[in-house]
Amino acid sequence: MTEPIIKLEDVNVTFQQKNQTLPAVQHVNLDINQGDIYGIVGYSGAGKSTLSRTINLLQNPTSGKVTVNGRVFFDQKVTIKAKELRQERQKIGMIFQHFNLLNEQTVIQNVAFALKHSKLKEKEITAKAKELLDLVGLGEYANSYAAQLSGGQQQRVAIARALANDPKILISDESTSALDPQNTNQILDLLKDLNKRLNLTVILITHEIDAVKRIANKVAVMDHGQIIEKGSLIDVFIHPKQELTQKLIGFNDGPLKAIGLLTKSGERTQDETFVKLTYTGGEVNEPIVVKLYKDFSVAANIIYSNVDFLGDQLIGTLFISLQGDDANIRSSIAYLNSHNVTVEEIQQGKKQNESEAEAV
Amino acid sequence: MTTWFAHTFPNVVYLGWGGSDGWETAIIQTLYMTFWPAIFGGILGLLFGLGLVLTEDGGVLENHASFTFFDKVVSLFRAVPFIILLAFIAPVTQKIVGTQIGTTAALVPLSLGVFPFFARQVQVALKGVDKGVIEAAQSVGATLSDLIFTVYLREARSELIRVSTVTLISLVGLTAMAGAIGAGGLGNMAIAYGYNRFANDTTLIATLLVLVLVLIIQFSGDFLAKVFNHKAA
């Protein structure tokens, strides 16, 4: 396997306040590969932004090791030299929640500002800035000021600025959090497009799980400064291990409530087996419910179903209750498993309690 | 008209236009005492203001010792009442301009009197620059001089013009006190030739002239601040 483009090893950041030390990032290990769109999610104050700032040393870690593009930026107390850091930072673009454009400079000057220390001549800088603005679809606004643009447009300018030095990495720190849903999706799609076209590695810091679902291929969940769960997007979404992760992605919320209500109302009999079926796009072509009844004499009753997209990948979730004799239910589950459908049996009592807790 | 004026403002007319006691001389003295301290005090204040913002905790050049130095110097000079500062630094004035009295001698205390005020104003103006913008500039590899000139001073330009206006106006106020060390000017005209001689007409005209000067400064300041502002209203 190739070396990760970003390697964080046991990174800690603590903030010293008058009488106390606040651990913002604790023992974080993270490998990000070239071409990844790595989502880092968590609630506000989880340490996501602080963590992302250790990548380009806008925030110095208290301890740990940061390696980017094969260069060691920080190792315990030793920091890369200021001049080298400035050069290395140009290979790491960054965009922010509040765009952070220079208000007193025109759009094109904002982009050109990032190219000031490149080897390009002034004419070439202007040409490249123009090119970048065309890339983000804002060529005609070159001479406007930031205040004259909408939020989505300002973020596009910020993206053009961040891409000015042809970075290999783009850190997006809550870049869509201040935008409306339509602009959010446009910006996310733009990031995805850039990722594909330029093989740009994107670190997507966000509290919006939908943003991650839309474009990321990997995800890490942060809580209290720690990464509590990480892996491929599909793995984490289908099999979330931590409670917080489940909560964050709204895992099982609806169906469990439905099952809880059904069993409470007494309409349901005890011989029902509740199962959750998960399948990924294209793998299921046969009509499952019909098949179960015809071949296994098992009556399947759909309680809840949902189809979700993780990137381009379709994920189907189906909560059903099965009625029939035990042996038939076993063999029908085996059948489903052999057809790439993940089957999880739901323990009624336990889940019911959880769903009640949820309802409170 | 002329006779009405001569009749209503006899003392004003008596002082004349040119000559050592004349109005022209007083106006030029006031402009002179406003202009040069504005330059010297302005540069000094800008440097100290920048120093305060750059070296503060969390600043680009965070340095506690330097910050304390800038902070204490500014506070010390602000604490001394100007009329006392005039006398207090007379030996220093002597060293710098070779005399302790007169219009030129007033330039030194005026510069030193106005710079701490300006430094604080600059500090506030520069602190108004969003930290996120600084961060964004750093993330594209900005150098210290980029941060100072393209980010801090440029982004705060409109606000700096506004605080310069306030400072200039307070400087005009300080020039009125410089009469105490024989510097002349419109303030001196109002006190020494007006008030002390029971010539209220002289006091009135001198005051009106100061008012005109202040209004000109205020209007030009407001105008420039507006022209150079591209932030959302």
UniProtKB/TrEMBL annotation, chain A:
The keyword Secreted appears for this protein: no
Protein name: ABC transporter, ATP-binding protein
GO molecular function annotations of the record: ATP binding; ATP hydrolysis activity
Span of the signal peptide: none
Species: Secundilactobacillus kimchicus JCM 15530
Keywords, alphabetical: Amino-acid transport, ATP-binding, Cell membrane, Membrane, Nucleotide-binding, Translocase, Transport
The organism's taxonomic lineage, starting at the top: Bacteria, Bacillati, Bacillota, Bacilli, Lactobacillales
Keyword Transmembrane helix on entry: no
Domain ABC transporter: 6-249
GO BP of this protein: amino acid transport
Record-linked PROSITE patterns: ABC_TRANSPORTER_1, ABC_TRANSPORTER_2
Stored InterPro entries: AAA+_ATPase, ABC_transporter-like_ATP-bd, ABC_transporter-like_CS, ACT-like_dom_sf, MetN_ABC, MetN_ABC_transporter-like, NIL_domain, P-loop_NTPase
TrEMBL record, chain B:
Entry-linked SUPFAM superfamilies: MetI-like
PROSITE patterns tied to this protein: ABC_TM1
Signal peptide location: none
Keywords: Cell membrane, Membrane, Transmembrane, Transmembrane helix, Transport
Any Gene Ontology biological process: D-methionine transmembrane transport
Domain ABC transmembrane type-1 residue range list: 27-221
Transmembrane regions: 35-54, 75-93, 99-119, 163-184, 204-225
Subcellular localization, as worded in the UniProt entry: Cell membrane
Topology with respect to the bilayer: Multi-pass membrane protein
Ranges in a coiled coil: none
GO cellular component, one term: plasma membrane
Protein name: Amino acid ABC transporter permease
Organism in which the protein naturally occurs: Secundilactobacillus kimchicus JCM 15530
